[in-house]
Amino acid sequence: MWALAAADFGAELEVVELPRPEPGPGELAVRLLAASVNPFDRKVVGGMFRGSAEHRFPLVPGTDGAGVVEGSGERIFGTFFHKPVGVGTYAEYVTVPEGNALAPIPDGLDPAVAAALPTAGMTALQLVEALGDARSVLVVGASGGVGSFTVQLAEAAGKRVIPIRRGDSLVEADALIDLVSTDRSSFEANARYAPLAFNTNYVSADPSQNFGMKGSREDLERLAAMVLAGELEVPIARRVPLREAADVFAGRGPGKTVIVMQVVVLAR
Ligand SMILES: NC(=O)c1ccc[n+]([C@@H]2O[C@H](COP(=O)([O-])OP(=O)(O)OC[C@H]3O[C@@H](n4cnc5c(N)ncnc54)[C@H](OP(=O)(O)O)[C@@H]3O)[C@@H](O)[C@H]2O)c1
Fold first, then answer.
1. Which of 39, 56, 122, 245 is 20 to 30 Å from 45 by CA-CA measure?
2. What is the pLDDT of residues 84-129, one digit of tens each?
3. How far lies 94's CA from each of 2, 12, 81, 130, in Å?
4. Are residues 16 and 102 in the same domain?
5. Is 101 contained in some domain?
6. 179 lines ligand 1 (CB under 6 A)
7. Across the chain, what does the average pLDDT equal?
8. Residue 151 belongs to a domain with what CATH number?
9. Mutation to probe ligand 1, out of 64, 117, 153, 166 (largest number of atoms < 8 A from CB)
10. Which residue range or ranges hold the Enoyl reductase (ER) domain (predicted)?
11. Is residue 63 predicted with pLDDT exceeding 70?
């Protein structure tokens, strides 16, 4: 199979041919149609779990994807966390252990759109739920994957959203969602603007402010239903075929990048 992989921690991604991963006990084998890129993937290649988890090299990153289950033919999307680390979704095939959040791709939902939903969409959904009855919310990092979903979902929940993009100044609000700070002092500076504050990079000394997404099939189904109903726009900024995607960590920019595994030719 073709895959994007890093030969070592910190190495550039390369398009490589690898053996298909074999499913272990309780694992599904999935032929991927699309995968989306999350900052977590770049961090894993950078060595986030070096020394604390077993890795397989060449390391194929990627936790989010949409594909077809081998054998049953069911079309699914969700998260594909794997141990050892390195059997990821930037590939034509992946295996997925039990315990991951997976849901059927509903009829009418483009697999590339489904692949863009899991991590960013579930994080946004759960962050907005964590806001409780806060009436206004600052979203720092509003133009990114999580931020784009968070702004839409918070507005749909009736909150006054103050999106903070690079260079914007903060103002006081009931709540703060900080998707950008990677150190405690910068989060603490932002958290002064709101009595309720969350970050997604685990930088606060107060664990209740360190938000961690929990994968859930129900949340995936809710997100897919909202997209189909036209209630949630999926901000795909770039769709790139797998064999041309070695640069996916280089470009940032707004919205989501989706790696597409094959060109689907629709019958007339
Ligand atoms: N804890 C969890 O469960 C969890 C779940 C999902 C994500 N995360 C983490 O949350 C963070 C955001 O994820 P993501 O998927 O949204 O990433 P992303 O798509 O890369 O978006 C980050 C956004 O922040 C913007 N930004 C950077 N510096 C900024 C600044 N100083 N002020 C305002 N905006 C700024 C970036 O804009 P530019 O394009 O201008 O740089 C980008 O649009 C990542 O660190 C990710 O690892 C954690």
1. 122
2. 999 999 999 999 998 899 999 999 999 999 999 999 999 999 999 9
3. 11, 21, 10, 32
4. yes
5. yes
6. yes
7. 95
8. 3.40.50.720
9. 166
10. 10-259
11. yes
